[in-house]
Amino acid sequence: MKVYSHPDLPAQISLHDWEAQYARLRQQGLVEPSYGGPLQRHFTAGRDLRLQSLWFDNSAASLRLWNFLLTEEDRLREARAVGNKLVGVMKDLGTTPIIAYSVPNLVAFYPDGAWWIPCVMEMGDGLLHIADRLGIDESFCPVRAMLGAFLNEAHFPRPDLLLCSVGATCDDFSAIAQRLNGLGFPILWWEIPHRRHPDKNEPVIELAHGRQLPMTQVQFVTREFERLCRALSELAGHEITDIDLKNSIQHSNRMRALLGELRHLIFTAPRCPLPALELLIAEMMAIHYCSDANEVILVMEDLLNTVRHRSTQGLGFLSPDAARLYWVNPVADLRVMNLVERCGGRICGTDNMFTHALDPIPSHLPPLEALACMALSDPMVGSSQDRAERICQEMRQWNCEGLVVSRIPGASHCAWESGVIAKRVNDELGLPVLEVEIPPLSDAMSASMQSRLEALVETIQSGRKP
Fold it and tell me: Do 48 and 125 form a contact (C-beta atoms < 8 A)?
């Protein structure tokens, strides 16, 4: 067994190393939640095989984060067993779960998350083969794995209600969801219009980042959410009131504030206090709380306290001269987040397609109107130029030195928007850009990806002023 130096200091360790680290934490009085336990158990169960290829933060908070993520399926089945209703929310990434969680007997989750299963199970799940047989082949985004997950019911229970946004959404996802609907999984659709810039003298609502939304679009989405509220109230057997919604929004804003501070510390500390892989998992928690709206707050507080301590003590990872990179789009293969750091990069800004789930929800507006504003702030329902503008703003804010656009294989939007974003960053900021397509398993192209990431890092470091 590998023994690494100073196990109480920040380090990235393998799954094998976690055996000794777990024993050490237990000796130090580790108190675990009900879903706690050794990280290795998820691998030895024969399911989460990719864990053996990853490098993990060695903190107790990281252990809790990973155990929370990898036990979501158990929570969903436990929720069903005690009589709660399960709501599958699809595509909007961060808004409709807030409505569902406004009543205590509804549990919302994103079946979209199945897109990571082929990676985590190293293609041993067969989900993509099921999608192939249904006519949804590799020309589609990897989220097509969701079809297989619905059919074999091996990864999450069948939801009691399925919601899905339609309109200004990814063409791939719309086609996949329509195929799912035709297979006997009825979907309650709601429409999100393409976000446009207001006409001259048109009534608007102004949000953070200086964004203005046409009032007519906000009113339209508000009416759609009223429709969803009625359906969710019927499912819950409890009428969802404005007070319920306000409480749920307040809870979500607490989560977003914790995550906001976490990101600020990670992006600004002299040494990186939390690796990119754990940051990605933490950000994903914001969109639906990993099926437990209360526990996710405790997970995030634990992680934030660890990062605060490290930042205060000047502890962290990576070289102080690591290239400061802004990362666009979530990766299909989690191991790539380790790779970018091993190539000398440091993630100092992110747009993982759901920046609207990170922004605070306006508290001065009626609750459904506030949620409609957030839905319309989704970077994927507006123009690529809008998205690029925010990316440029944040790259300036976090003093980023380069951009990596992770293209999602088969995704219809990636063919065009990645070029728009890359050109805008290069033209406006004069910074180097790397576009790379990342499949669910990137092993075959790992050497090529490493060379390209190392070249980007070298370009950044050699271009610095003395």
Answer: no
Query: Which residue's structure tokens are 């109230």?
Result: 233
Phi-psi domain of 200 (left: phi exceeds 0; alpha: psi -120 through 50; beta: other): beta
**What is the rounded distance in angstroms from the CA atom of residue 49 to the CA atom of residue 23?**
22
pLDDT of residue 1: 31
Structural domains in the chain (count): 3
- Give residue 5's pLDDT: 46
Residue ranges in the chain modelled with pLDDT below 50: 1-5
Residue 270: which region, alpha, beta or left (left: phi > 0; alpha: psi -120 to 50)? Answer: alpha
Number of Cβ within a 10 Å radius of residue 20: 15
Domain membership of residue 2 as a residue range: 1-61
Q: Which of 177, 203, 180 is nearest to 190 (CA)?
A: 177
In a shared domain, residues 111 and 161: yes
Tell me the CATH number at 112.
Answer: 3.40.50.11890
- 106 and 7 in a common domain: no
Shared-domain flag, residues 276 and 235? no
What are the b/e assignments for 382-413, b being 16+ CB within 10 Å?
bebebbbbbbbebbeebebbbbbbbbbebbbb
**With 0-12 CB in 10 A as exposed, 13-18 as middle and 19+ as buried, what is 182?**
exposed
The answer on 434 and 456 residing in a single domain is yes
Q: How far apart are CA 106 and CA 95, in angstroms?
A: 15
Residue 324 confidence (pLDDT): 98
Give CA–CA dist 392/380, Å, rounded: 16
d(CA 263, CA 441): 27
Give the CA distances from residue 301 to residues 57, 210, 258, in Å, rounded to whole numbers and listed in that order.
Answer: 16, 29, 7
**Helix (H) / strand (E) containing 328:** strand 323-328
Tell me phi and psi for residue 101, to 5 degrees. Answer: -75, 0
Query: Does 96 fall in a domain?
Result: yes
Whole-model pTM? 0.96
Q: Are residues 292 and 316 in the same domain?
A: yes
Is 279 in the same domain as 164? Answer: no
CA 27 to chain CA mean position, Å: 33
∠ CA 436-442-448, nearest 5°, is 55
Please give the C-alpha separations between residue 159 and each of 224, 235, 337, 461, in angstroms, as whole numbers. Answer: 21, 11, 31, 50
Question: What pLDDT does residue 409 have?
Answer: 85
Whether residue 289 is found in the same domain as residue 377? yes
Burial 279-311 (b: 16+ CB within 10 A, else e): bbbbbbbbbbbbbbbebbbebbebbbebbeebb
